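Bit of a strange request maybe. I'm writing a small parser for structure token strings and I need a real example to test against, not something I typed by hand. Could someone generate the tokens for this chain?
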Amino acid sequence: MESNQKIALVTGGSRGLGKNMALHLAKKGINVILTYNSKKEEALAVVAEIEQTGQKAAALQLNTGEIKGFDAFFTALKETLKDHFNTDRFDFLVNNAGIGLYGSVAETTEETFDLLFNIHLKGVFFLTQKALPVINDGGRIINISTGLARFSMPGYSAYASMKGAIETLTKYQAKELGARGIAVNIVAPGAIETDFGGGTVRDNEHINQHIAGITALGRVGLPDDIGGVVAFLCTPEAGWINAQRIEVSGGMNL
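Reply from user aminoacidic:
Good idea to test on real output. This should exercise your parser:
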């Protein structure tokens, strides 16, 4: 089965950065399948918004930290590809889903560590592995990291460590998938005003002002600063960008 239009799979696409990525991909003429963990109504609203642009879209439930659920997810994904898009493959995988849980090195519990590990590293590793037979040759994989993997701020050690591991994984994925023409890159956002991590960056004026002060462009990031970059990496023009870490932070901590 062949589809002329490219299809992107965006994990965690019901809100925040994932939603913004999905909408920007649609603006580029790319169809979108987005996953959500619990916010089904929000996910369906994003699907409707994408369909208003003339692109096709669908939403599927997925807990990216529950690896044993991946086989059932891919069964559902293949059915959706066949029924909704008339194909059996997709082109772009955006590993965006994540949670913000923070604590000092001294206070981080094993439970918190394991949750972050499963969602941000183990889940990304094995979801990508299971996606490989379904991704078209010449496709793209975009992993999401954080500025916190380059610079340190107290309280983010476990979260940032998982993202540091993802940055290393990205290079290995690029090396091993190069024979299939699949480019793999990292997008590392700086601090963004969303509801991520309880909306701290957006809602805490002190933190917001502090981040603006250490950012060369003098403000906190917005979702629109990120989604377009991810969409660009799925265009033909970006095809020679591979194994790169692209920090999109307005110049934090330079």
